[in-house]
């Protein structure tokens, strides 16, 4: 006899399906996401709005898609974009589907935006989210040796900083936890790699200026949160996806990261989308990207 689904899980599933259908209609492309979510729901326990951090009275939450398994499962932390000034985790559901189809558990997190706290708050929050995942590995069957970070735009930047910044830096919040920070791979979707480049000179972007604010040491902070300043040997494998016509985050950020990683002999790959802008790739481009991600994770031995 089938066990009745709990009211909380039913409400959660209905919300996610409704949201996915809404996004399909709003975007007018990639139909079938809601059907995929329906099929995947039988393979996952869904936990919404788990509080992972409270800082200065502000509660930060995550959504967890826990694969139904008794064994430790590879787990991906997804970080939304929005230039550190915008974006919501609840609007990322469709983007999680390829990772769920690969059998990964997925943790979809939020972080403090610039209207709540300027840089480096978002970086600090994401490091805390990683600590939360590692600290709850046994409870939710996360495999602590197979934690993957992924994010788009500002989220790509935060995936890189979370995976590259040493635990010894001052970017870890007091009393954040004692867990050893360790990730197995990073998937960087058109992320910022040199923050100072976006607040001074010809590549200045208003969203970056807003995130840094009027802090007197903003140039120093920009350097401290720039992934390019943490390149060294023995980093986890990194896959970067970037359109060479991106006007929001310059394609040069991806190229410079790729070159620096190559020089440090770090296993990495740059997938360039010809004439690709800032996301919103077409169906064939998305298929190629998802296949590249699958191959990247398989080669890194991160898929069960």
Automatic annotation (TrEMBL):
GO molecular function terms listed in the Swiss-Prot or TrEMBL record: hydrolase activity
A Pfam short name: BD-FAE
Tree of life domain: Bacteria
InterPro entries the UniProt entry points to: AB_hydrolase_fold, BD-FAE-like_dom, GDXG_lipolytic_enzyme
Keyword terms of this UniProt record: Hydrolase
BD-FAE-like domain: residues covered: 62-261
SUPFAM superfamilies, alphabetized: alpha/beta-Hydrolases
Keyword Hydrolase: yes
Listed PANTHER family: AB HYDROLASE SUPERFAMILY PROTEIN C4A8.06C
Protein name, per record: Phospholipase/Carboxylesterase family protein
Source organism per UniProt: Lyngbya aestuarii BL J
């Amino acid at each position: 006899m089938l066990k009745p689904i709990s009211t909380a899980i039913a409400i959660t599933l209905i919300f996610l399906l409704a949201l996915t259908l809404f996004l399909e209609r709003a975007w007018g492309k990639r139909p079938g996401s809601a059907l995929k979510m329906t099929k995947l729901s039988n393979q996952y326990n869904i936990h919404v709005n788990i509080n992972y951090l409270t800082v200065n009275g502000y509660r930060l939450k995550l959504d967890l898609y826990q694969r139904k398994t008794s064994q430790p499962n590879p787990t991906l932390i997804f970080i939304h974009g929005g230039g550190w000034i915008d974006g919501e985790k609840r609007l990322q559901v469709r983007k999680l589907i390829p990772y769920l189809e690969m059998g990964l558990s997925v943790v979809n997190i939020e972080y403090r935006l610039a209207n709540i706290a300027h840089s480096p708050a978002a970086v600090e929050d994401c490091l805390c989210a990683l600590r939360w995942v590692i600290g709850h590995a046994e409870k939710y069957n996360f495999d602590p040796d197979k934690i993957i970070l992924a994010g788009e735009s500002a989220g790509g930047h935060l995936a890189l900083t979370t995976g590259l910044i040493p635990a010894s830096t001052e970017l870890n919040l007091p009393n954040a936890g004692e867990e050893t920070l360790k990730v197995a791979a990073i998937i960087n979707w058109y992320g910022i790699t040199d923050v100072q480049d976006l607040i001074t000179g010809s590549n200045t972007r208003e969203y970056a200026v807003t995130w840094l604010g009027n802090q007197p040491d903003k140039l120093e902070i920009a350097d401290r949160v720039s992934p390019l300043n943490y390149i060294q040997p023995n980093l986890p494998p990194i896959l970067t996806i970037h359109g060479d016509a991106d006007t929001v985050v310059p394609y040069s950020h991806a190229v410079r990261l790729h070159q620096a990683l190559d020089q440090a002999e770090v296993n990495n790959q740059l997938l360039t989308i010809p004439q690709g802008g800032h996301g919103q790739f077409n169906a064939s481009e998305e298929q190629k990207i998802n296949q590249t991600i699958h191959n990247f994770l398989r080669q890194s031995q991160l898929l069960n």
